[in-house]
Known about the structure:
The protein has 137 residues and is an alpha+beta fold. The protein contains five helices and five strands. The chain has two domains: 102 residues, no CATH class; 32 residues, no CATH class. Helices cover 48% and strands 18% of the residues. A three-stranded mixed beta sheet has the order 3-4-5. Strands 1-2 form a two-stranded antiparallel sheet. The mean pLDDT is 85.
Amino acid sequence: MKIASCKAKGRQLQKLVRDKLQEIGNKYGIDPDSIKSTPMASAGVDIQLSPEAKKFFKLNVECKNKEAINVAKDFLQHYNKYKNNTQFTVLIHAKNRTKPMITLDLDEFLKMYEVYLNTIHTEGYAEKRGSSPANTS
């Protein structure tokens, strides 16, 4: 595959992630222009967030759209760049004709899930539905 084609695949995934974050942010009053896809081969994260958007999303996003992805290697390389950061470091990856997936550190996932559980508990989610999301069968 040509380098230009590879970069186009990567750019496509970055734009998809940007668009989805903008869509969520829009619901909470976050300016869509505060969430940007960075130019290919730029140093740093692939999704650039303004200070306002960083307060809301708290993410360091790396996107990889390639067939020969080594998820562990690519994730650890990205994670080690930002391990002293207070934001969640995620690798969003895809291959041809597959849905994008996300990889993050187990402890970071559990922190996020605990916040989610606290939110639904506070809002009475389990009482309204008759069960918690974790107990659906």
